[in-house]
Design brief:
Rossmann fold; alpha/beta; 16 strands; 36% helix; 2 domains; six-stranded mixed sheet
Length: 360
């Protein structure tokens, strides 16, 4: 897996993309006479989660890990003087959690996920001195709000190529969480990648797709995956939050029987550690790749800009393959599949492939 660095962002203004560099400056802590690091005074930052927790093995976890890393770089601890998260169990928790973060004095507050848009916008209007970031949605016309979006369709296209080059049954699957423009972008890119790669391979590959209607239901994800694998799909990609964890559970159960081999493509972070299973005393892995959405890196970068009094309030930022905001972790691909993915990545970055954002 290639190391990615977010060295810049693209500004979106009324749908028009432009280029912008956003280099962050790492601030090393001063070492005391006994060589122990001293905590810095920082512009504090907090995350408001959606309905999934910071241990969802996906979206929220990636965001939290990025903020933890930022705090560690400044030698500050979790808490009101450094960084924190506020867990939401549902929509009713959004405003109270944002209010708690504001009352605690956090300088920058991140709303992780489009479901927080209305609540975050309301609180941003009431608290103009606080920095706010909405992830995966757009809030315009507010000087204290940054909108951070990702070209997840590009990474999903690479997942589609990987799936097409891996399938032995010429049938693959896609599981979505709640149907929305954010998730259908994953689906659209994946379908296009499968179709284009299938054409390169000279065959038609069937895609079975289904939405669970929930981001926090592993049981639904497991039952949908069970049905897809029963319909001859042997590679499934899920963009479904915790619901996608059920896909991993089902793939593990099937692979451990030894009756057949099935595969999974993870989402948002490298999920290959969750693909380990044991068969006949041998450890194997069914997670062939994972689309990466560098939410954690973006949050850390924006927290750092706020810390440097350079918070880009009022801007809408987009992060794609070219800027390292999304990518594909190639953890278990064949040589041919990896070469095909690498070639597709280069073509997208060069502008030779335009990946669709919506379903046709």
């Amino acid at each position: 897996m290639k190391k990615r660095n977010i060295l810049g962002t693209a500004i979106v203004s009324l749908g028009l993309l432009g280029a912008m560099s956003a280099c962050s400056t790492a601030k090393g802590a001063q070492e005391s006479s006994d060589s122990s690091a001293k905590a810095e005074k920082v512009a504090t930052a907090a995350i408001i989660t959606d309905g999934n927790g910071v241990d969802d093995k996906s979206y929220n976890q990636s965001a939290w890990e990025g903020l933890v890393k930022w705090g560690e770089e400044h030698h500050v601890e979790r808490g009101n003087a450094g960084y924190q998260y506020f867990q939401s169990s549902g929509e009713a928790d959004f405003v109270p959690n944002i209010d708690q973060a504001i009352s605690a004095g956090f300088k920058t507050i991140f709303g992780v996920g489009y479901m927080l848009t209305a609540s975050l916008k309301q609180e941003a209007e009431l608290n103009p001195e606080t920095n706010f970031v909405i992830v995966d949605d757009l809030i315009e016309g507010m000087d204290n709000v940054v909108s951070a979006n990702f070209e997840s369709n590009q990474a999903a296209y690479l997942a589609g190529v990987a799936a097409a080059y891996t399938t032995k049954t010429d049938t693959v699957g896609f599981i979505g969480g709640v149907e929305s423009s954010v998730i259908t972008a994953f689906e659209a890119g994946y379908l296009q990648g499968v179709a284009d790669a299938g054409q390169e391979l000279g065959k038609e590959i069937k895609v079975i797709d289904q939405y669970a209607g929930d981001f926090g239901a592993p049981d639904k994800g497991k039952s949908i995956a069970e049905a897809m694998y029963a319909q001859n799909a042997d590679v499934i990609y899920a963009a479904a939050g915790q619901t996608g964890n059920g896909l991993f559970q089902e793939a593990k159960a099937i692979n451990e029987t030894g009756d057949k081999e099935v595969y999974v493509i993870g989402v948002d972070r490298d999920q290959s550690p969750d693909g380990n299973y044991t068969l006949n005393g041998e450890t194997k892995n069914f997670c062939i790749a994972s689309t990466l959405k560098e939410v954690g890196d973006v949050l850390a970068d924006l927290a750092e800009q706020a810390n440097d009094d350079q918070f880009p309030g009022g801007q809408s930022l987009v992060y794609g393959l070219a800027k390292g905001g999304v990518d594909l972790a190639e953890t278990g691909l064949t040589s041919d599949a990896s070469k095909a993915v690498d070639a597709a990545r280069e073509k997208i970055i060069a502008g030779n492939i335009t990946v669709q954002e919506t379903l046709k």
